[in-house]
């Protein structure tokens, strides 16, 4: 069993997976650190009272975005995969759904 894991973890696919995961993790960490630095700089520049107003406006925008953003792509992926089984042709109504989703995405 130990040999199985040793062979599996030494494969080229696993090494590529670890490499790509580390790039994603380091990119996310860098974005988070830059976000903290930018909040500190904005807070120092605006002062406590004005930064409070800025924080309230930012929070309001994020709440409205959560309420209005429907993420219609999730429905396309979920129900489209059920419509399209191996070997079956893609139904016409699914093409219409993908087309409508594409137009809504760009609006």
**How is the main sheet built?**
none
SSE succession = HHHHH
Kindly state the percentage of residues in helix: over 70%
Q: Look at the structure and give the mean pLDDT.
A: 80
Tell me the total number of β-strands. 0
Strand content: under 5%
Distance N to C terminus: 54 Å
Radius of gyration (CA) equals 23 Å
Uncertain regions spanning at least 5 consecutive residues: none
Structural class: mainly alpha
Shape, per Cα inertia axes: flat
Determine the number of helices (DSSP H or I, runs of at least 4 residues). Answer: 5
Written account of the structure:
Helix content is 84%, strand content 0%. Helix 4 packs antiparallel against helix 5 (92-106). The chain is built from five helices and no strands. The chain has 107 residues and is mainly alpha-helical. The chain is flat.
Helix-strand layout with pairing:
Elements: H1 2-9, H2 12-46, H3 48-68, H4 73-83, H5 92-106
Helix pairs in contact: 2-3, 4-5
Q: What's a concise summary of this model?
A:
The protein has 107 residues and is mainly alpha-helical.
Question: What attributes characterize this protein structure?
Answer:
107 residues, mainly alpha, 84% helix
């Amino acid at each position: 069993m130990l040999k199985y894991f040793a062979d599996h973890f030494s494969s080229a696919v696993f090494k590529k997976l670890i490499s790509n995961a580390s790039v994603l993790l380091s990119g996310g960490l860098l974005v988070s650190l830059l976000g903290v630095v930018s909040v500190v700089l904005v807070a120092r520049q605006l002062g406590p009272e004005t930064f409070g107003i800025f924080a309230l406006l930012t929070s309001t925008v994020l709440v409205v975005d959560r309420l209005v953003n429907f993420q219609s792509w999730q429905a396309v992926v979920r129900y489209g995969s059920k419509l399209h089984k191996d070997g079956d042709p893609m139904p016409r109504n699914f093409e219409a759904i993908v087309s409508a989703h594409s137009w809504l995405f760009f609006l």
